[in-house]
Amino acid sequence: MSFKNILKGEYTEAENVMLEKHVPTIVILSGHGGDGNDFVRVIVGKEVAHPNTIEHHIAWIELYGVKQTGESVDLGRMVLSPGNTRPDVSFKIEHIEEFKSFCALEYCNIHGVWEGSLDIADI
Ligand SMILES: [Fe+2]
Questions:
Q1: Domain count, the chain
Q2: Ligand 1 centre and the CA of 29: distance in Å?
Q3: 10 is catalytic
Q4: Cα–Cα 20 to 30 A to 11, which of 5, 17, 40, 114?
Q5: Angle ∠(73,62,100) on CA atoms, nearest 5
Q6: Residues 35, 68: contact at Cβ < 8 Å?
Q7: Which structural domain range is residue 118 located in?
Q8: Cα 19 to averaged position of ligand 1 atoms, centre (Å)
Q9: What is the C-alpha to C-alpha distance for residues 93 and 98, in angstroms, rounded to an integer?
Q10: Are 100 and 81 in contact (CB under 8 A)?
Q11: How many other C-beta atoms are found inside a 10 Å radius of the C-beta of residue 72?
């Protein structure tokens, strides 16, 4: 059994003719709000909204980070309610300056698991 095609990303989307987009977009929100909190926002369908129905929806979003030390950290998982919550979630991060990159995974109940990543050096 091969797991080669389980995780999809930008390369898959580029070859695909689907209108809706699946690759998670990661945005850093530094010093957000009155208290100066830092968030990592993960959006699925930023440019073209993904369907949000019982039949076709994003079921969950996970976020991972890699620290400057090289340590990989599981930062959490959001489970979404089809038809009620959009796949646009924010994780409040402690000591965001310790991270050098983030990776998000999301699961579409029809199109599978997709990944997107962001290197802090690139922003
Ligand atoms: Fe989908």
A1: 1
A2: 26
A3: no
A4: 40
A5: 40
A6: no
A7: 3-122
A8: 10
A9: 10
A10: no
A11: 10
CA 22 – ligand 1 centroid, Å: 6
The one-character DSSP state at 85 is: S
User: Which entry of 8, 50, 57, 106 is annotated as an active-site residue?
Assistant: 50
The whole-number pLDDT of residue 1 equals 45
Structure tokens at 101: 């990159």
Q: Which residues make beta-bridge pairs with 113? A: 7, 107
Smallest CA-to-CA distance from 57 within 116, 108, 7, 113 is with 108
Task: Residue 17: give its domain's CATH number.
Answer: 2.60.40.730
Instruction: Give residue-wise pLDDT tens across range 9-35.
Output: 887 877 776 777 899 999 999 887 677
CB 102 within 8 A of CB 81: no
CA dist 81 and 58 (Å) reads 9
